[in-house]
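Side project, low priority. Logging it here so it doesn't get lost.
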Amino acid sequence: MSCRIAILAAFLCVVPANAADKPQLQAGAFAQDVTPKSFPISVNGGMSDRQATGAHDPIHARCLVLDDGTTKLAIVVVDSCMVPRKLMDAAKAKAAAKTGIPAENMLISATHTHTAPSSTGVFQSDADKGYVAFLTEKIAEGIEKAHAARVPAEAGWGVAEEPSQVFNRRWFLKPGTLITDPFGNTTDQVRMNPGIGNPDLVKPAGPVDPQVSILSVRTAKTHKPIALLANYSLHYVGDMPALSADYFGVFAELIGQKIGAEPGFVGIMSNGTSGDVNNINFRKAHPKTGVGERSRLVADLVANAALKAYQSAKHRSDISLDVATTELEFKVRKPKPDEVEKAKEILAGAKGRVLRGLTEVYARETVLINEYPDTVKSRMQAMRVGELGIAAIPCETFTEIGLAIKEKSPLKPTFTISLANGYNGYLPTPKHHALGGYETWRARSSYLEVGASDRIIPTILKLLGDVAKK
């Protein structure tokens, strides 16, 4: 009898130990309001600076924290055109000190709305120093609140498609069509945003990615939606007045309604690989719409696709997390001395007034990019949530790059969040650099070495492979 009791006791000891080895997910989310408190304020997104005098709708840093008992991850998507690495690193450090989440386990990205306060200088919009300090504190505060809100959770992921709202914006035109860049060259072979119904259109210069990928997080026992992170490769819509979260904010509202979420749910739309994609069909004009109507239409269609992905997702609590990061150092495409001198002459002719036309605007960019260091460091990152892979690149990444990562990633599905962990401008492929066009013109919005993508793709794939092994 005592032998049987001993065997039974040994068995009972083994079962809890095995159960304890399984990860039990916890999750928390919080939508931190980052709308500025004072106006007017500079707005990123145009060749000329704009001053917002109020907010059309609130803008947020939407925060999600995941915890498997061993590893903690934080994902933040900020309603901003672009956020510089210095600001993101400062916010991560503050949040790490409060939560214990390692800074390298945090992913912070910008949506790329063109109607948000300037937090970094691009073209004639310069960073608002007061807002930079405010945004830094608020991002950290949002992560802290999401961390404090953790409850036992389950996660699921899925993919659906919405092909009607993505169009490549770089076009080949009929032979003989003159395309002149801001520096006076006529070597460009493609034109960005060539005009709706342009009779010289031939074909788009690249593909699109219609996938809507989602990560859904719910409470473990009651299956109450906590957050839904979506990813879609659409640049932005652009029919909202400043300040506005653009379609990204409307999606966050609609997806909660569609999945029956309660107050406190956090919908999040991240920008995929949309550096060469917008929602304009240049073959045929879409019907005229009023302020915000186009954003709501796009958001509704994309939210419907996200709903399909959500409904097919298999939620589980016993999933593990992992993250891997690395640094790459890139050469900066610097102007030649004679180009700098010519640019200075152009600016002298403007006599301090607001710059007009691409030639003047890019003359200023030439002078400013000449002051950049010869090389810059850039952070690459990969996360794994169960079998889902998430890549992060600090650029306005071309769609071909995202498609290559999805195809070759060892994790299925995988999606890429652009404008993440810093801002290093556009990321065309070498082929697209050869074709020219706006996204390749040297400026603070496009300055990495021509072969940058050929180094980034294998680096991201290695990071995804590293997290897939664990």
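Brief comment: Residues 26-168+203-329+373-468 form one domain.
Revisit when time allows.
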